[in-house]
Amino acid sequence: MLRQLKEPFQYQRPDKAAEAPASEQAAGKGKKKPRAQNASQTLRQMWSYLIGYKGKLFAVMVMILLSSGFSLLGPYLAGTAVDHFLVNRDSGFVVFLIGMAVVYALHSITMWLQSIWMITISQKTVYRMRVQLFEHLHRLPIPYFSKRQHGELMSRVTNDIENVSSSLNSSVIQVFSSVLLLIGTVSVMLSLSPLLTLLTFLVIPLMLLGMKWITKQTGRLFKAQQRNLGDLNGYIEETLSGQRIVKAFSQEETVITAFKERNERILVSGFWAQTISGFIPKLMNALNNLSFAIIAGIGAVFVLNDAITVGVIVIFAEYSRQFTRPLNDLANQWNTMLSAIAGAERVFDVLSEEEERTDEANASELNEVKGHVVFDHVTFAYEGRSATIKDVSFNLAPGETVALVGPTGAGKTTLIQLLCRFYDPSSGSIRIDGQDTKEIKRENLRSHMAFVLQDPFLFEGTISDNIRYGKLDATDAEVEQAARLANAHSFIVRMKNGYHAILKSDGSGISQGQKQLLAIARAILANPSILVLDEATSSIDTVTEIKIQEALQRLMQGRTSFVIAHRLNTIQQADQIVVLRDGAIIEKGSHAELLQQKGFYSSLVGGHLQSS
Ligand code: ADP
User: Fold this and answer.
1) 72, 441, 445, 567: which has the fewest Cβ within 10 Å?
2) Residues with beta carbon inside 6 Å of ligand 1?
């Protein structure tokens, strides 16, 4: 729970450069879209992406048409050459042999063209899907993420989109050329010998039955496989990012066992999906041989009766192969497509999630914030739960500090989330400089705030980049000045490479206290009017602690500050102390006033709170 609650603050200062460009397609802007619940819906959504490449798609279709034509023509020329050679015994067969060479060469060229064009289309399509999905993920409201595993979402951006890509690369061409080949082959066969054609068709019902059974099984299995993979990814991400906790509680064995269970599920679903789908070519091959035997046997009888020529048997033998191959391909592609559709469905599922509500039409921007903050009878309930914040009112003059105090679960974090509009109050209002926050654009509102959290969010990059996150266009000199004010300069210059030292995203390499100093430097650089400080509960060495306190004093100077406080001296220095229990304010006042009341606060001070 702790992790979930902390996450919102990772998005401290929305990067203005990342402001979403208008995304192009149907999938995913603003309004809630119906979820992709079935294949036809998903295919329609897929089509909305492909339609952008109409011209290229048309060219691919033309190439498919030509290559199918050439591959029909090949056997016909072969059969005719055989007749010239065996039946007419003339040299005409040479012309047909040359014709065959030309036809097969053209066939290769058209196949190659359709393939590279289709690859271009599919790569561009999935490129766009990836961008849209990533953009959309960053515009989803915070509650969406607290309900889901990160790894599972990552799997959608990587695995699922990759599936769509590989299927687009091969399946579209295969499906169209297979259908064309089927129609063409059957028409030519019928025109040559309807009887032999009907005999060849004897195997079709067997094929259809086999395929139907197999695809029914594999469709289900591929879906399960995809789900299991996502689940495993999520679990890996969770345990890796929670490594310290896992080790601290000696949970390695439990984690490994749970991993094995998930891995095993993939093993089972993967094994059956692959085995059963791998059975398709074998089945088709066997039926193919059967139809070949029928053609050879019965065809020979027809030749002896002079009903057909040997050339026709050659053509039929070749066509019967060409006739089962598209069926075979269709069956194979069906699986790839099912897995791609399952992938696309999961992608569209995210895209159809409602984005963080767009700002109200009358929302305005505040250029300058003095920092007068009013919580006016604020009540709030998380979805499906009873009220977490109950009728909370308090008033902060610009530059004042409020210490939010109360036991875990009292609603301190929730109050902050309401302040920065991750959620909006169900009733009552929060006003900044007299303006209801609901009337202020979210991004603008958050740009006037900075957060210093217990476990500051650092990303992979240099120290100076990490500080600059507070103000992207800050000069090196400004970064250094902020670091000096934050008491971070001295430890930074002692590091190899100083401000250019690379930090790992998990912040390993520097201490918890140093991370805090960097977060303070970042906040100083951002120069917000409103500051949110989640005081560290973990103990930090005394020297660093003094540095942090000093830096915080400087940071809080002249800013309206909300402190989720754990240390007595921070609380003592606050202008106001708001004591929360079960979401309601039970006491409010200065340290001295509250001690006099001898209520909950004075018992907290006497008991749990420690002086640092
Ligand atoms: P504090 O910061 O004082 O420890 P919180 O504001 O985190 O308290 O939590 C207040 C209450 O709201 C708790 O009962 C907590 O379980 C609940 N809560 C917090 N976040 C959520 C959420 N995303 N969805 C549902 N309930 C939540």
Assistant:
1) 441
2) 5, 143, 146, 382, 385, 388, 406, 408-414
